[in-house]
Write a structure and sequence with these properties.
Layout: H1 4-18, H2 24-31, E1 41-44, E2 53-57, H3 59-69, E3 78-82, E4 85-89, E5 92-93, E6 98-102, E7 106-110, E8 119-120, E9 136-137, E10 141-144, E11 147-153, E12 156-159, H4 163-170, E13 182-185, E14 188-198, E15 205-208, E16 211-221, E17 238-249, E18 254-256, H5 261-267, E19 271-283, E20 287-291, E21 299-319, E22 327-348, E23 366-387, E24 394-406, E25 412-415, E26 417-425, H6 453-458, H7 463-475
Parallel strand pairs: 1-3, 2-4, 3-6, 4-7, 5-10, 6-11, 7-12, 10-13, 11-14, 12-14, 13-15, 14-16, 16-17, 17-19, 18-20, 19-21, 20-21, 21-22, 22-23, 23-24, 23-25, 24-26
Antiparallel strand pairs: 8-9
Helix pairs in contact: 1-7
Amino acid sequence: MRRSAPVFQALLVFLTIIETQWSSVSGMYCADMASTVYRPHSVTITEFGAIGDGVTLNTKAFQNAIFYLNSFADKGGAQLFVPAGRWLTGGFNLISHLTLSLDKDAVIIGSPHSSDWPVIDPLPSYGRGRELPGGRHQSLIFGSHLTDVIITGANGTIDGQGAIWWDWFHNNTLNYTRPHLVELMYSTNVVISNLTFKNSPFWNIHPVYCSQVIVEHVTILAPLNSPNTDGINPDSSTNVCISHCYVRNGDDVIVIKSGWDEYGISFAQPSSNISISNITGETGGGAGIAIGSEMSGGISEVRAEGLRIVNSLHGIRIKTAPGRGGYVRNVYIANVSMHNVSMAIRINGNYGEHPDNNYDRNALPIISNITIENVVGVDVGVAGILEGIEGDNFSSICISNVSLSVRSRHPWNCSLIQGYSNSVTPESCEQLRADCEETSICYDGGSSLAVGSRASIHNKPSASILLNSLLQLVSL
């Protein structure tokens, strides 16, 4: 069933027509956040000696410009404008009440020399670098303990030149964990919009210990075989709104995290109130939307809608393991289309390594109140593998209005889970075939309380109807 372009184009049109709007509960904190702020003071990077020839290193120019603009922080803030050109730089730090704005033909380029990316302490919720013990390279654009920060442009570009870092990773010659393109820590009122991010050495956009974050109208690009080039990674952060993004990369398109094993448990800062909408993604080795595997601080109140996942390994994925502790609960994912995806839904209770040998093997994660509904997929390998943990059944896993055109003769494989399903094609696994009268605890995405599953299910259009209509359209 590989009529790829016509099939998927028809699918997108059809799902766009029926796509429902977010509830006011999930979107209220997005609406309260301003994506643009007037800055009374503005300078251009060339005023500080920067040369946009793609060869001259401009780290000092960025640092000096931002140092100068700090004097306007209490006068309405300031803007640093990057005009057309190719601006090579090492890592630099932002300040509060700042807009970093790129011209449509501006490209900020990360230096190919690791010495131009400073080494900083590991995150306290990870206890070490994510790849190696010890410190980690600072992101290209970095900030900590900031407020009112905007990184934007007329679709200008931030290019990490990650190929050399990927080679070091594959050759095991890294001394420290690879850097992100953008990382903001302990910060509030952050907006990242209208930019293209390319070839990140590691994860692309990483808000960690942040609140009130908008990421919108962003394009993220990296080769499909590039290692760990996650797109957008909210980590131990709250009130995060991600919308209208296109991501094509080598790992998870969007992944929510909250710390790693005993360090995440001790730091105890969850990710919550995460809204995701209108995302198109293609990933070589990850999922369209993922949670974990680092989720030891807890993850809850996640709502994702309007996802289009193509040519990818996984569609929807939750990753955890014994020793993680923490929880993933109150997750609502709906209105999803998939095309040429190897596995539509995966929940894995035995995923990933540990930071060291000091983790508590008895720290079992709680996975509950997960609702996935209104999903249509064509050219799907396996419908789902849903695996809990011995002595730690994952509960209230609810799947409804899902219709997948699956290649495998064994579409579902489930163990150590409990939940409910309705209107699922091919028929879901036995563990989810509870009688409707006995199951009324499916999370509807509107609040932290579980609600009746029947109300959620019967008020939505049937995915099997959607798929049949789609196939009729394609056959014309």
